[in-house]
Amino acid sequence: MNINPSELDKDYLLLDTLNHKELIPFVRKYQKWKYPSTKQYVICNLIFLTLIIIASVIYSNDPTFKFERGFSYLSYGLLASLLLVPLHELIHAWAYKIKGAPVTSYDSNLKKFYFMAMADQFVASRSEFRFVALAPFVLITLFGIIALIFIPIYWKFMCTGILLAHTSFCAGDFALLSYFDEHNDKEVVTYDSKEQGMSYFYYKATDAD
After folding, report:
1. Which residue, 24, 107, 108, 131, is the most exposed by fewest CB within 10 angstroms?
2. Closest Cα partner for 47 from 173, 153, 175, 137?
3. Taking a C-beta distance cutoff of 8 angstroms, is the pair 154, 38 a contact?
4. Residue from 141, 175, 169, 200 nearest 35 by CA
């Protein structure tokens, strides 16, 4: 959005604040089945888990397939997914840039195991934020699914493990989208303050307010 945070007070009202140190409780609060975004998140995880089960059943009848080796590669994929964390956040930053954010940065907390990309003082609409939130999930998942078509069988297990783990890592992104689901009746916008370590959510005022 082509608007400065200082201008929000003219037509918008403060809805919520999010201290980045309290990101985990916020995520848990909005991981509820009633939200469409949470349903999408759970379904995507179940799809990749189902793929692993189906592949295991199919290849278990193949005498050349070593079950233990397949699951070793699966575990390698779960571990290798950690290497995608920097790429995931880079894609978030890239998506912010596409939407017009002049400055992007990163924050992390290894103890609580969360990482985040920020666009300091950039006000994002619901649609812009959705684009930013889903960009890593869509791109990495799409690339992984295409790779599954061409790679050897054991690498398929590794790739599926990566996709399953990466999807689970997207919990924060989908929870933030669930927050927007919660306020679907409002025109919500949001921006980050790097200096304060906060995110702010505003909604457009109506005559009823």
Report:
1. 108
2. 137
3. no
4. 175
Structure tokens at 162: 């990566």
CA distances from 33 to 39, 40, 70 (A): 6, 9, 33
The sign of the torsion formed by the CA atoms of 112, 200, 85, 73 equals positive
Whole-angstrom Cα distance, residue 160 to residue 51? 8
**Main-chain dihedrals φ then ψ at residue 76, nearest 5 degrees:** -60, -40
Give the position of tokens 């575990």.
75
Distance CA 17, CA 36 (A): 22
Buried b (16+ CB within 10 A) or exposed e, 27-57: beebbeeebebbeebeebbeebeebbeebee
**DSSP string for 22-85:** GHHHHHHHT--TTSHHHHHHHHHHHHHHHHHHHHHHHHTT-TT--HHHHHHHHHHHHHHGGGHH
Residue 125 φ then ψ, to 5°: -75, 175
3-class secondary-structure state, position 125: strand
pTM above 0.85, yes or no: yes
